[in-house]
Amino acid sequence: MNPDFNAEHYVIGACLLSADAVRFADAIVSPADFYRPQLGDAFAVMAEMRNAGDPIEPYTVAVRLKERGTLGMDTMDLFRFMEATPSAHTVEFYAKQVREESVKRALRAAGQKLMQQASVDGVPPSKTLSDAMEDLRGIRDNTPSQGITSKKLSEILAVEEDHDWVVPGLFERGDRMIITGFEGFGKSTWIRQMAIQFAAGINPITMDHIEPLRVQVVDVENTEGQWRKEVRGMTAVAKKYGTADPENLDLACHGRIDLTKDAALGAVHRLLDQNRPDILFIGPIYKMVPNGINNDDDAAPLITALDSLRDRGVVLVMEGHSPKGNGQNVRDLSPRGSAALMGWPEFGFGLGPESEGSNAASIQRWRGDRTRGTDWPKRLERGGPFPWTADNVHPATRQKYYGWDKQKVSF
User: Coil, strand, or helix at residue 180?
Assistant: First the structure.
């Protein structure tokens, strides 16, 4: 950290590193909270630019500040703020500091005004008290709303229902999915297959072509060598039949991490800053805390950390572990360790054999889907161009893209 910089400089630097940081900071501070007016103007300009979809860079921000008539802030100043800021994900930490200092300044000013009025002869105490209360209400009401607003039900019903799809029929922006399953039955294979298909522009469920997604994988259990061994074949198939090269997928293999600590969480946020993914595959869940998940207290800080990633607008897909089998055919496939994990994601799927000795997999929903009208299947079948094929692939799609049907497996 640069000792000549303070929290205000780091907020501006974080916003220059990532436009997403503007959104997070805007929920905490306003331009008026900055002690240095030029920094408040810079923050206001970046908020306007983000809303307009304009690129936020030192040069473009400096141009807007000049148009605004702001003096004492140029491109080189903005570059220094950006270079001194370690990561965009720190913006909330520093924004809270900026807001706290702003409130303290306002309280000190209100206290001084109160003392001055109380010492003036002829001013009724009721007037002094009323003015002080008004000042305090102003400080309170100037706090950003954190996005909490109220609308009439009629306004809400007047808007046609819409979905912010990342993949139509499967994922909306910000969705979270946890996949569990029988050990060694193909859960990890299905997760990797989906990652590669999304990157190749293939809908992993319907097998139709889609707009290719930017995919980031953070695997805290498997090595690069294991990935190379497991996905070489399906990557070649996806490259042949997809609309994009799946080798553009970004993969970070790492051992167990503690995502509840700033260092590890910051490292993942930096990957999001760098690669700008649409979808993040991360896990397994139990290897993202130091001692596994044994109760809700273990799960709570991890959920908070994961939600900070989800707030970046990415879809989260995670592998979880279910309780060990008890020798019975029916097995609970919900995540082990904490009930909090069951109610948290939008989708919770468990993979298990459809019947004893079967190669087909039934998909057990251990929580109800939050999004209605999705295309997620009820079962997966082995065979076809990829290791797993959903039961709802249209026959025309099989023939059009792959020249394949259930009766004749050609791959």
Answer: strand
Q: Residue 133: helix, strand or coil by DSSP? A: helix
C-alpha distances in Å from residue 404, one per residue of 75, 208, 394: 58, 14, 11
Q: What is the dihedral of CA 389, 394, 396, 397, to 10 degrees?
A: -50
Cα–Cα distance measured from residue 182 to residue 190, given in angstroms and rounded to the nearest whole number: 13
What pTM did the predictor assign?
A: 0.68
Distance CA 30, CA 286 (A): 38
Burial status of residue 254 (CB atoms within 10 A of its CB: 0-12, 13-18, 19 or more): middle
The mean pLDDT values, 10 residues at a time, for the chain of 411 residues are 77 91 88 94 94 91 94 93 87 90 90 88 83 80 61 82 87 94 90 97 94 96 94 94 94 91 84 92 92 84 89 92 62 81 91 83 87 86 89 83 57 33
**Taking the alpha carbons of 57, 62, 63, 65 in that order, is the dihedral positive or negative?**
positive
Report the relative pairing of strands 176-181 and 347-353 from DSSP bridges.
Answer: parallel
CATH 1.10.860.10, the chain: domain bounds: 7-141
Domain 7-141 has CATH 1.10.860.10: yes
Residue that is written with structure tokens 């700008």 in the block: 276
Q: Would you tell me how many other CB atoms lie within 10 Å of the CB of residue 180?
A: 26
Outline where DSSP puts E strands in 54-208: 165-167, 171-172, 176-181
DSSP 363: E
Q: Phi and psi of 290, rounded to 5°? A: -65, -35
pLDDT at position 409: 41
Sign of CA dihedral 112, 113, 114, 118: positive
CATH of domain 165-402: 3.40.50.300
> Cα separation of 107 and 88, whole Å?
30
The CA angle 73-9-87, to the nearest 5 degrees, is 125
- Stated as kind and residue range, the H or E segment containing 136 is helix 125-141
Q: CATH 3.40.50.300 spans which residues of the chain? A: 165-402
- Six-digit token pair at 24? 């997070």
**Measuring CA to CA, how many Å separate 58 from each of 77, 82, 119, 219?**
8, 8, 49, 34
